Amino acid sequence: MATIFSTRRQQKLPLTKDMAARLAQPLPTGEVLGQDGVNAASALARADVANRNSQAIGDTLRHRLGLPQTTFAQLEAGLSGTSIVDPIKTPADPRLIAKFGANLCLKHRVLPWRSVAGRVTILAATTQDFLRVRDALTVLFGPVHLAIATSENLDIAFSRACHNTLMENAEMRTGSNESCRDWNSGMAFRWGLAIVLTVLCCLTLWPQISFLVLCGWAVFALLANTLLKTAAAILHLFARPDPQVPARRPADQLPIVTILVPLFRERDIAGALIKRLSQLKYPTDRLDVCLVLEADDATTQEALAVTQLPFWMRAIKVPLGTLQTKPRALNYALCFAKGSIIGVYDAEDAPDPDQINIVVDRFAHCGPEVACLQGRLDFYNSHSNWLARCFTVEYATWFRIVLPGLERMGLVIPLGGTTLFFRREILEDLGGWDAHNVTEDADLGIRLARHGYRTEIINTVTQEEANARAWPWVKQRSRWLKGYAITYGVHMRNPLKLWKELGAWRFFGTQMLFAGTISQFLLAPLLWSFWLMLFGIPHPLDGVLSPSVALTFAAIFLLSEIIGVTVSAIAVTSAGKRDLIKWTPTLHLYFPLAALAAYKGVFELATKPFYWDKTSHGIFAPTQSKQGTDQTVNQLQPQPHPIAAE
Fold first, then answer.
1. What is the pLDDT of residues 238-276, one digit of tens each?
2. Polar residues compositional bias: what residue ranges (predicted)?
3. pLDDT digits over 516-550, tens only?
4. What phi and psi values does residue 476 have, to the nearest 5 degrees?
5. Is the sign of the CA dihedral 319, 321, 327, 333 positive or negative?
6. Which of 376, 400, 565, 602 has the highest CB neighbour number within 10 Å of its CB?
7. Which of 257, 279, 266, 291 is nearest to 465 (CA)?
8. Gyration radius of the chain's alpha carbons
């Protein structure tokens, strides 16, 4: 519509003392535009309202009525006055894609299709996607024309036409200077062997001095960890309550949130997962849940094949590549995400119903430097057995005391693997997840801090399944500790640069979190050896430690145990599981499993650093504590089934 405005000259303002006030009050719009301009503006406004209403009708049909995608495409094409194209039956011209760039096609969800009579047809699922980049396309191709494709067909076309780019993004998205993909297993083996031989040689030549040095470092790591827990607990006790009740906003003002759920060999996951995520109160027309499957995972694919997914949930199949890890799958799926906020859930997660609303509200009110929000994790089977109880106590301490304490102290936060939410543009700028790192979450936490961003812990809980069998627990923990070691090695390639980017306070905090944690578990047997003295059994340091030093060591051990039990009791009380307090002293028998896992992880650094030890889900049914904290997820969890994967 051509819009013509007629104007008339404003009357000359009198030179009076209230001229400033007169100038501050603009003339009525009608007086400025004139009658012709008013009519034209009114017509334009009516057309704009009609266009918005048409789009609203399309969105309603698309998201509320559950109609086939072809119906959506027909509606969109009718509103735009264009046609529908199937890019699967008639593939796009690869030369046009190369000219525009596969990454830009994926980012803006437009596909240069064919050039006919000097005009290039551009495929998009919505008119808005096309209009956002129409000017750039016109500069590049000349005259362009829109055609509509269904979102599903467009995704399939992208996966085929942009395959090489997608594979590169999945495995090489993170910069080489911040990735562990260049990890040299042979060199790691040689260095590890040299260190072991050196330690053995020192223990042989100077047994008492060498043993004393190793014990001294172990005691220092224990003391540092105890001080960290103490500071975090004090900050927790004096922290102001933060209920974080989300503000209610109109649905059309809410951003689209994409939730990535990587699945691998999940036999009974489909129905239970849909039921759990359906409890979310976020508007489903603003929710984009992507179930990320591996191409060779017949188990999960068969489970989904007999399940009707809701319109807000879709499956993305990740092609085989040079490795198979969770972060690689996340990177691949990120290219197909529709939201401006990217979340990550695990297959067995049961998030709080208000969780997405809390995330959106927090991102809307916090500064742009907050790039990530980390939710708290808990277990719905916390009373399955002794191992589950201890794991629950440990998780409560980590997610309710330690991580919030790290945030309050301004230290680097190593992220958890689930209930994570990112600003998409920042996540993409940082290179997504390191596909080769088996603790991609902790690595990403450091990279966020190095680039000047912050992570906040939000007061919302996701229930998941505790890994409550001894050997699977050891395998899972060995993967975590192996990933911690790799992450520490990657970021300590250039210690001076890390110091400059983090600052002294966070640099030393990173040393304590990563080097301290790893060495504490590796050297734990040395500390246990002091129990020999209580039973009169000869100890390597007999006659070396003076009574005062031995008494100091004993005081540190006792104080560490008391503080550990106290902090754990505070944590489980905060989680509403006070009945677990009586189990906190048994953590002394629980953590030796982590020492075994540490040695397994160190061995794998030299043999299979990128191997992902899969954790099975659906083994344990939900349990109910005396406080009834687990009953809310009791109806939402899958029933136990045979082990699908290890």
1. 988 766 666 677 777 899 999 999 998 887 666 788 889
2. 623-638
3. 999 999 999 988 888 777 777 777 787 777 778 87
4. -65, -45
5. negative
6. 400
7. 266
8. 30
